[in-house]
Fold:
Amino acid sequence: PRHIEIQVFADGAGTVLHTHSHTLDLILALSGDAAVTTAQGMFCPGYYDPSARRYDVDPAIEFARIRFDAGFQAVMLSVGGLYEVEVQCAVGTLRGMNNGLDWRLRKPGRIMGKRQLIDEAPFPPFEQKSPTVVCIEELVRAVETGEPTSGNARIARRGMELAMAIAESSAMGGVPIFVPCERRDLYIASR
Structure:
């Protein structure tokens, strides 16, 4: 398996269906849309009614782990007010900070004894655009060319399957759940 780890440090106030559905979509995109084996996680306590198999509110995620068929994983931790993403692989580390406004790149560099250190590297220049503008441009391209958008319904369904697997895992005490879930009767209230 290739060496890659995806870490997300997300705003602790976010909920699984509203905030973290986008986080799960981001994790899938960063994975190269890789196939998922299992998902597990824990929600903040007090949301789940086991007799009814339902969450009466859209719950907040405390922790989630997604394991991919290719042998790597993504880990998500909820921390107050922070939304940062880090991808670690054999050629370096990329970190998005301040909800994607700032970026940091680190690559293998100096040797210290028998260890290779990971040093700061210049982040390549890029044009920052509003996500709304990018979405509109992509929709126009899709209409003009007939090509699918990068955020189509198939991709969105995969993110929702992950959300439901994490919810099922939390309901079962945090055990890994195969994706997609076999059971389809778990209810999560939306806003």
